[in-house]
Amino acid sequence: MTTQTDELASLEAGLDALGTPEVTGPSRARQVWSATWPPTLFVLLLVAVWQAVYTAEVVEAYRLPSPLDTLAALGDQWESGDLREATWNSVSRGALGFAASLLIGTALGLLVGRVRPVRRAVGPVLSGLQSLPSVAWVPAAILWFGTDSATIYFVVLMGAVPSIANGMVSGLDQVPPLFLRVGRVLGARGLASARHVLLPAALPGYVGGLRQGWAFSWRSLMAAELIARTPELGLGVGQLLDLSRQNADIAGVIAGVLTILVIGVVVELCLFAPLERRVLRRRGLLAAVS
Amino acid sequence: MTVLQGREGAGVQVVDGGPAVAVRGLTKRFGAGPVVLEDVSLEVAEGEFLCLLGASGCGKSTLLSLVADLDQPTAGSVEVRGGKPSLMFQEPALFPWLTARENVELALRLRGVGRAERRARADELLELVRLADAGRKRVHELSGGMRQRIALARALAQDSRVLLMDEPFAALDAITRDVLHDELVRIREAQDLTVVFVTHNVREAVRLGDRVVLLSSRPGRVVKEYPVGIGQPRRIESPEVAALALAITDDLRAEIRRHGGHS
Lengths: 290, 263
Fold this sequence. Notes:
The complex is a heterodimer.
Chain A lengths: L1 H18 L8 H28 L11 H14 L1 H33 L1 H15 L7 H8 L3 H25 L3 H9 L4 H38 L9 H10 L3 H33 L8
Helix pairs in contact in A: 3-11, 4-5, 4-7, 4-9, 4-10, 5-7, 6-7, 7-9, 8-9, 9-10, 9-11, 10-11
Chain B lengths: L1 E2 L8 E4 L5 E9 L5 E10 L4 E5 L6 H8 L7 E7 L4 E3 L11 H11 L4 H14 L15 H13 L5 E5 L7 H18 L2 E6 L2 H7 L2 E5 L6 E6 L11 H19 L6
Parallel strand pairs in B: 2-6, 5-9, 5-10, 7-8, 8-9
Antiparallel strand pairs in B: 1-2, 3-4, 3-6, 10-11
Helix pairs in contact in B: 2-3, 2-4, 3-4, 6-7
């Protein structure tokens, strides 16, 4: 009997070794390199084309600055302290607005996802709101709240909350019914089921919603800052951009656009992309990056 | 006698003494649809390995759901001795956000087992299914057979005397399935479990069961019972297993023919 058990054990060990998927991806450095060089090359190409168009004088210089002029404008904005102040103001507004959207959007998503009457009534409206550009709320917000921070936060909320809530709803919808059955067999009911089965299972969709929610927060914030520009609101990146426009400073304008782009991309690359990758990789939902 | 569910006098009752599982006059109909199970009565003795066999539409899975108290019968009663039974599905249905070990620990945690005891018990269970070294792996890093063994460890973590299995090896390759048959027999003996095993694979039923019950389809009824009476360890290729499987297959085919309209 013992030899039989031993035989079974060794047979099983062999089978396990054969059946375990071999994970031999490229090294981390290689992965980063292969993900970085194509977009870098493309951006360099764009800058080269830009420089060529400038040199060929296809457009008058007051309409199109050279890449170097733009860099110089960025440097000036940095030197004067405007850029630092504006970046700090905008990023902190964006973070606060996103945090508020996160709380409201998550609660709303849970309600819509799990309470049938709420879903039938609110679900379609929420989907509709997602396709409404939140900048459309700026005039109304100015009339309601005046040129106050409240205006800016309201617009950010209207931009990000539907994305986050819809992400939560689609995350909940994607939970395999079998998981809930297994949870019930294991004795998970009510809150325990939500905590140990439902919410973790909904996480991938939710994280996708957060990522989109941040993109919408940032866009909405910039739209609001561009339109609502008063001394009380202080200087944000959007306001800095509009200031350059008023001064007919095209290099400053392009510098402003680049600043907005870079901040958005940096937050995405440093925060949301790794978060999503981590969630997906742990679940084996991310194929080995080629 | 503890009554878990009292609705309509049916539902699952947890009892002490008597057979491990007693199903009496069980009928199930979903709404106004066809009758899935009709007047099914079965007793499973303590420590018995019972295989339920039938073609598609015999209500095997429905029967298990009723015994597991995941669904309510239309008529009849289910009694389970000594606590809620555990249940394994065809898919391992392990939670992919947890490691193999955490999957087992979650079952213990949901029963209110304390942290230290959870660790110790999870170690024992992983050892039992011979996956002590795979505890830190995630679900996608395990083979199909390993996943099903972790699912078995998770089911055993419920510390129930009765294990219900719904075609648990149907999705595995033949070699792995064969090895898991040996494993299941070993673990069932070591843990002194009562097993109700649903399958549509006749040889698998004869390989594993102390008794095989053949169910008819649409509606599911008990057609015939076969005591197996072949000593364990058995091999699925052995002539004794093959001979009984042949006899049961003939009965099963006769049963299926009735549905073809040529009587």
